[in-house]
Amino acid sequence: MPFDPATHPLTALEARVLATLMEKARTVPDSYPLTLNAVVTGCNQKTAREPVMQVSDAQAQEALDSLRQRSLVFETSGGRATRYEHNFQRVVGVPDQAAALLGLLMLRGPQTAGELRINTERWHRFADISSVEAFLDELRERSADKGGPLVVLLPRAPGAREPRWAHLLCGPVDLSALAAATPPDTALQERVQALEAEVAALKDTVARLCAAQNLPT
What we know:
The chain has nine helices and five strands. It has 217 residues and is mostly helical. A hairpin with a 6-residue loop joins strand 2 (73-76) and strand 3.
């Protein structure tokens, strides 16, 4: 039976746990598979995570058990602690490049194709943005017999130069909640305006000094 997020979506916590396993398998292979403690630490990172979470050991264990029942995670023995590894690509049926994109979308939230190319550098090195977009298009056009689309291209946000992509592994994207979670960056706008005013003042000062010294501006 194909993986179908529309009928059996992941929870936000399951997506975080699964994507953490996917990330660490690529970025710290010497420490992989992960112990429960390492899974929790990875889920609760303050960087490269959107949103930032505070996941307890019990919550992570519950998510791991649920993912294991769906064959998305395996429990491995050996050593003094139980370790976990993901089985994402085989269950979902996507190539390595597509898995990297989906993993980053689960960890960092909606991103543009350009952001995905930069953020996947340690997971998979894409030749250019066109190759990223090609894999995203394949995931968006995934046929119903394979479980349906796994990503969606979001409407362009006001003031944004590029549209962002989002994963569908947790079901349809709630656009109203997404908009509420990402308000316009008024602080950044104010800073830009302040810098523009400062540059204008400096230009005026330079022009007056040049005029006083009979220098060309």
